[in-house]
Write a structure and sequence with these properties.
Length: about 400
């Protein structure tokens, strides 16, 4: 039997095969490490894509052993390169540690202060240790990126929200608890948990059969760029309650299953360990809903940039999610302003939404993308990747209809 073309074959710009990208750029050690981390994110995305293709092939054509073998070989190759890259990151981090003295932190962290719609980096040194490696490839699930499940309001939202996709094939109803709907900032918990589960799947660990994920609260707060004071723990406690209390009814398919059902965003959460001196949570367990767990098991996830957690405005976070979901590896994505408003879940008037979009455009704060609102109410998200933009322009020159 002739093997089919590998769906996970290298793209035109395949970072793991691009030796120039794996060579550190000129500049200080902090810049080098940030570059390596970015390459690690791209490599993680390719591993997820290969796993996703293998999962689909197993479900749809389990007898195609040649393609399966080819995909598994591709996965082993990617995982080998990831191990090599992680060794380089560890070595670079070891060299950077002496630089983490007062007066040199801006040099190492890249001088990321809070401007242009971004909060300052609260924990500038956290990314220089191997223990945080999975954070370099944060994951968001495709289902909740597509539908406006989380409220954009910063005040308790007690309204019931219903959304139907433009083609009528997807429906979501979100009902709050007495504490209100889960917020866009509450979703930080979901991203953290999905990232851990995806990383465990990538490394083929046995504990991925369990929908319950245990983590240290301090590690979450640092990763999500949140304050680690008592207030930070209090806000997380409230987020847990909203996530568990918000009920979803949907027929959006995850993991190959389309079942109309109602469930909480998370099934439950519980404190595993408390501080001996106060009421702070030290370690917790979060159990994902089966709907979200199915999505992660099928690798229906996308890698997101760590600076997502620095976006101040809920709407900016939602814009980034939609750009990441729909722009993907293309150079740009265009959508009508009113349709974009519906996809964000915004309840403002179109005039107010237009003003908010212009403000985010002026802030130019979205990681990996920039947006432009045209006079005819079209919104275009452009990839900041110059290589991708140049490649798109070349294609358009060769084929104006592309």
């Amino acid at each position: 039997m002739t093997a089919k073309k590998n769906p996970a074959a290298p793209r035109e710009h395949d970072l793991f095969e691009d030796q120039d990208m794996l060579s550190p750029p000129a500049g200080d050690a902090g810049r080098m490490l940030r570059h390596l981390r970015g390459t690690h994110r791209e490599l993680s995305e390719q591993i997820v894509a290969a796993h996703r293709d293998l999962t689909r092939l197993t479900a749809n054509n389990p007898n195609d052993s040649a393609s399966m073998q080819e995909l598994r070989g591709r996965l082993r190759q990617l995982q080998t390169h990831r191990s090599e890259l992680e060794a380089r990151i560890e070595t670079t981090a070891r060299h950077i540690k002496p630089l983490l003295r007062e007066g040199q932190q801006d040099k190492v962290s890249g001088g990321k202060t809070g401007k242009g719609g971004l909060t300052q980096v609260r924990h500038p040194n956290r990314g220089f240790f191997l223990a945080d490696l999975f954070d370099y490839a944060l994951k968001d699930d495709g289902a909740s990126m597509e539908a406006p499940i989380f409220t954009l309001s910063t005040k308790p939202d007690l309204s019931i929200w219903e959304w139907t996709s433009k083609d009528g094939n997807k429906y979501v109803k979100v009902a709050p608890s007495v504490l209100g709907r889960a917020t866009q900032h509450d979703k930080d918990v979901l991203i953290y948990v999905v990232s851990q589960l995806t990383e465990a799947l990538n490394r083929e660990r046995d504990d991925t059969r369990n929908r319950t994920i245990r983590f240290t609260v301090y590690d979450f707060l640092v990763t999500a760029n949140r304050q680690t004071s008592g207030q930070g723990y209090k806000l997380l406690h409230e987020a847990f309650e909203r996530l568990a209390g918000t009920r979803i009814t949907t027929d959006i398919k995850t993991g190959g299953e389309r079942v109309k059902q109602g469930f909480g965003i998370i099934d439950e959460w519980r404190i595993i360990e408390k501080s001996s001196s106060d009421e702070r949570m030290i370690a917790v367990e979060v159990t994902l809903s089966r709907w979200l767990y199915n999505a992660v098991q099928a690798f229906e996830v996308l890698t997101i940039h760590p600076d997502y957690f620095r976006l101040r405005k809920p709407l900016a976070r939602r814009f980034y999610e939609l750009a990441r979901k729909h722009c993907g590896h293309q150079a740009q994505w265009t959508i009508a302003l009113d349709l974009l408003q519906a996809k964000t879940g915004s309840r403002s008037t179109l005039k107010e939404f237009r003003r908010a979009a212009h403000t985010i455009q002026a802030d130019d704060c979205l990681p990996e993308y920039r947006l432009v609102v045209s006079a005819d109410d079209k919104v275009t998200f452009y990839a900041r990747d110059n290589f991708r933009l140049a490649r798109r322009l070349i294609r358009q020159t060769a084929n104006p209809q592309a």
